Prior knowledge:
By secondary structure, this protein is mainly alpha-helical. The chain folds into two domains: about 10-80, no CATH class; about 85-130, no CATH class. Helices cover about 60% and strands about 0% of the residues. It has six helices and no strands. The protein is globular, with a radius of gyration of 16 Å. One of its GO terms (cellular component) is mitochondrial matrix. It is found in: Mitochondrion matrix. Its main location: mitochondrion. Keywords: Chaperone, Mitochondrion, Transit peptide. Pfam families: Complex1_LYR_2 (PF13233).
Amino acid sequence: MSKITLNQLTHPQRVRLLYKTILRLHRGLPTELRALGDNYVRDEFRRHLKCNPMEAQLFMTEWARYASTITKQLGLRGKPKGELGEQLDPSAVEMLKDDQVVQLYELMLATKALNGDTITADDVRGATPK
Length: 130
């Protein structure tokens, strides 16, 4: 049986492979983060079903980068090796559309609540970091 390379897959097949890979990687996350992450991934992939080719390329590139980051942070055994996640580049945040900023903000509030962190008045007002 011959091996199939990524270049031989159709775009929908590559999307499906990335989607399933990310969900598999999430198995190594703590339970609460896994549930939040799985729901977020499902929503994002559904939301981009009908996007234009340029957006699709950017979408795939960023999610592949996410999968790579999670792979490094979980290690070979699928258990977190230290802290999960990474800081966002402020210039990348500046390029987000308004609805993406709202979505990022809601994700921040959800993760704070999961970690048992107190959601402050500054969080609710949307204060920017200093």
